Amino acid sequence: MERSMFNSLLLPDLRFMLDESDGPGLKEFCEALHPGVAAEVLEGLDAPVAWQVLTHCEPRTQAEIFQFISLPYQVQLVESIDPSQLTRLIEQMSPDDRVDLLERMDTGEVDALMPLLAQAQRSDIRKLLSYPDDSAGSIMTTEYASLPADITVAEALQRLRLQAPSRETIYYIYITDEDRHLRGFLSLRDLILAKPEARLEGLMETDVISVRVDDDQEHVAREISRYDFIAIPVVDNQNRLVGIVTHDDAADVLSEEATEDQQRLGAVEPLEDSYLQTALWILVWKRGIWLVILLGASFLTAWIIRIFFDDGGGSLWMMKFLPLVLASGGNAGSQSATLIIRALALRETNQGDARHICLRELLLGSLLGAGLAVLSAVIAWGLVDYAWQAGVVGTTVFLVVTLGTTVGAMLPVWFKWIGVDPALMSNPLIAALSDMIGVIIFFNVAQLAAPPS
Amino acid sequence: MERSMFNSLLLPDLRFMLDESDGPGLKEFCEALHPGVAAEVLEGLDAPVAWQVLTHCEPRTQAEIFQFISLPYQVQLVESIDPSQLTRLIEQMSPDDRVDLLERMDTGEVDALMPLLAQAQRSDIRKLLSYPDDSAGSIMTTEYASLPADITVAEALQRLRLQAPSRETIYYIYITDEDRHLRGFLSLRDLILAKPEARLEGLMETDVISVRVDDDQEHVAREISRYDFIAIPVVDNQNRLVGIVTHDDAADVLSEEATEDQQRLGAVEPLEDSYLQTALWILVWKRGIWLVILLGASFLTAWIIRIFFDDGGGSLWMMKFLPLVLASGGNAGSQSATLIIRALALRETNQGDARHICLRELLLGSLLGAGLAVLSAVIAWGLVDYAWQAGVVGTTVFLVVTLGTTVGAMLPVWFKWIGVDPALMSNPLIAALSDMIGVIIFFNVAQLAAPPS
C-alpha cells in the first residue's frame, strides 16, 4: 500500500480515538500494527499529538515505532517529550538509531539529557559519537549476539535465548575470545542443524569476512550486498569485535548514496533530508551554488565567442549570450527534474503534491532567477556596447530560470500521472526543451528592449 | 577488499594449481572461500577454465559459487558444460537464480535441457517463467519455510530442521493452512524464545504484510526496505502463499532501479548488464537513439532562431546552429559521464580500466559522431544558403561528439584518481565544458571552410 493509503485509512480512526480519549484503542493502535505502519500514520499528525498517542504504550513499543519515524520528524517529536519520558525512550532505542537522533538534536538538549542516562549507555553513546561521519562505526550497532568457542550447541542455544531480546539480530552469531577478538562465525541455521553436543569451535567458520570500524559506510554496504549477508561484523585495528552493521541499514546507505550521486549529477549539492522536508532557503543555497559556478563557465564561453567575433552590429551581439541564457534555463530545469524524479522513485512524494511542488518551485525559480539575473546583467555589462543589452541578458535569465525550474519540476510529475516513467525526462531533454523556450524569450525580450533604429 | 585485490592475490595461485592439476587444492579453493569470493576470482579466467575448476567440487558447492557469478558470464560458462553436468548444476540452483539464467539462455538450449530435469523442478521452472518481467513472481523463490498453525514450538523446531537445508531462509516462517492460504507469520527468534509446548497459532502474528505475485518488483523491494524485513511473502489473488522475496534480491532490485533511473536521466536507454559487459553495438544503439531525438529537438531550436532572424550575411548564419552543435557535445558527454560514474560507484570498473575505457569511448564517440554528423549535415542543408555551411555543421558535430564522449568518460575517472567524487562531474558541468570546446571548434571549422570573401 502506498504511504497515502495508510494515512487516509487510519488517520480518521486515530483522530476519533484521540477526541474520545480512547486509551485502550490508542494502545492497540501502537501494538497491533507493524511499527513501520504506525510510524507512517503518526507522521500525519502534529508532533505533540503524535507523542500523545505514543504515551499509551510501553517505552519498548514507543522506541520500536519511533525508530521508523524520519529523522527531521523525530527531532520535532523530541521537543514535545518531557526529560524523564525522553530518557526512557532513548534508553530503549537501538544504539545506532539513538546516536543518529542525538547527532541531529541541539547540543544543549543533548548535554541536558546525557546525565539522566545510565552510565553504560552514556559511554556507549560517547563511543559511537566519536566515529567519523560516513564510517562503519557511525552506522553500526553494538547489540550483536556473541558466544565463546568452547561451549556446546545446546549451551549456545541456551545463552542465545538470554541474549535474544536485546540483540538486533541473533541469526548471525560471532565467536569471540575473552578479549573480544573475532575468532569465528556461525549462523543460527548452522546451530539448529548441528548436534546439541557438538562444540562451536568445530562448527564455526574461521575465515570471517569483516570490515574495519573506520571503513567508509558505502564500502560496508557494498560488502553486505555482495555476499548477501544479513549483517557484517565490524572490528577495530586489533581485530576486536566492536559492532555489526545490519542489511537494512546497508540498504539505507546504498539508497542514500544513489540519491547523492543522482543529485550531484543534476548539479545539486546533496540534500540531507527528503525533498519536501528540506527548507526553501537550503534548496536555494544547494542549487544556487552550482548555478553560479555554471554561470561562470557560461561567461567564459561568451568571452570565447567574443574573441572569434567582430561584433557586426544588428542582432549579432546576442550570439555571445545565446549559450549562456539557454544553459541557465536548462541547468535550473535539470536540477528540478533530478530532485523530483528521485523523490517520486523513493515515494517521498506523489502526484497529490503536484500543486504544492509547482508553487514551491515557482517561488524557488524566481528567487534563483533573480539572483542569477542580477549577476549576469552586471557581468554582461563588461562584454556589451550598450547598457540595454546587459538588461536584456538579465531579464532573459530571470524568465528562463523561473520557467525552467517550474517546467523541469512539473514534467516528471505529469509523466508519472499519465503512467510514463518520470526518469524519461532526462537532463539533456529538459535542456533541449528549455533551449526552445529560451530562444523565444531571448529574442522577444531583445526586440522589446532594442531602441528603434 | 576491492574486486581487483582478490584477483591479484588468488588468481596466480589458482593458475598454478590448474597447471599442476592439483585436484585437492582446487577442491579446497571452491570450498574454503566464501562463494562470492570464489565467483569473483573465477570471472578472471576464461569460461572453460573456470568450469574446469568447478568440476572439482560437489554440485551443491558448484551451484553456490555459480549463483554469485554475473549473468552474462554464467551464460558463457553454461556453454562449456556438458548436458548431464549442467542438469545437476541447475537442479542445485535456487529457483529464482535458475530462472534468471534460463531466461538469458538460447531457447534451443533450454528446450534441450528441460526434459533432463526432474518433473517437479520442470513445473516449478515453467511456473516462475510464466510471471511477467519485473513482477514479484519474477524475483521470488519458492523455497520458503512454512508450517501449520496447530503444532507446538518443539515440533516446529523439529520440522524446521528438516526444511532448513533446502530453504532460502528459515529465519522467517510462514504459517499456512492445508490449501496454502497465508494465515500467519513467526520469526525464528520468536520460536526460540517461546515455550516448547506453546502452539504456533497462539504465537503467530496474523496481520501479515505481504505482496501480490503480480506486484511490481520495485514496489516489493521498497516494502522490504521500509519494514526492515529479511523476506516478504508473495501471495496469489486468493491469498495463497506462492513464494518469498528475500532482502538480498530486494537490494539488487533497488540498485538496478537506481542505475536505470540514473541512465535515463543521462539520456541513455538503460543497459541490461554492467557498462564493461555491454557490447559496443548495444551502446551505440542505446545512446544513439536518444542523441537522434535530442538532435531533432535542436533542429527545432535552429528553426525557431531562423524565424526571428533575417540572415544578415557574414557569420550570422552560425547563430542558428550554435545551440545545436553545443548540445550535441554536451549530450554525448553527459551520457558517457553518467555511465562511467555509475559503474565507478558500483565498483564495476576502476581507474585500472582507464585506458580501455578511453579507447572504447573514443571509438564509440566517433561512431556516434559520424552518424549524427551525416544526419545533421543533411538536415542543415535545408536551412542554409550555401552547401559548405551544412558541411561545417556536420564536421563540427562529428568533432564535438567524439571529443565530448571521450572527455565526458575520462573526467570522472580522473576525478576518482585524484580522490574527488566522480559524481561532481554533473551533466550540466559536462555540458558547460563541452560548450567552451564546441565554440572553439565551430568557429575554427567555419573559418577554414568559408570561401575567401
Describe this structure in a few short sentences.
The structure is a homodimer of 453-residue chains. The first copy, chain A, is mainly alpha-helical and 453 residues long. In chain A, 64% of the residues lie in helices and 7% in strands.
Note the overall shape of chain A.
Answer: elongated
**Assembly state (oligomeric):** homodimer
Radius of gyration of chain A: 28 Å
Q: What count of structural domains of chain A? A: 3
CATH class of the largest domain in chain A: Mainly Alpha
Largest interface: A-B, 85 and 85 residues
Portion in strands of chain A: 5-15%
CATH homology-level superfamily of the largest domain in chain A: SLC41 divalent cation transporters, integral membrane domain
* Mean model confidence by pLDDT of chain A: 91
CATH topology of the largest domain in chain A: Tetracycline Repressor, domain 2
For the largest beta sheet of chain A, what order do the strands appear in spatially?
1-2-3
CATH architecture of the largest domain in chain A: Orthogonal Bundle
Span between N and C termini of chain A?
A: 65 Å
| Proportion of helical residues of chain A | 55-70%
Q: pLDDT below 50 for ≥5 consecutive residues: which ranges of chain A?
A: none
Tally of alpha and pi helices of chain A: 21
The biggest beta sheet of chain A reads:
3 strands, mixed
Query: What order do the helices and strands of chain A follow?
Result: HHHHHHHHHHHEHEEHHEHEEHHHHHH
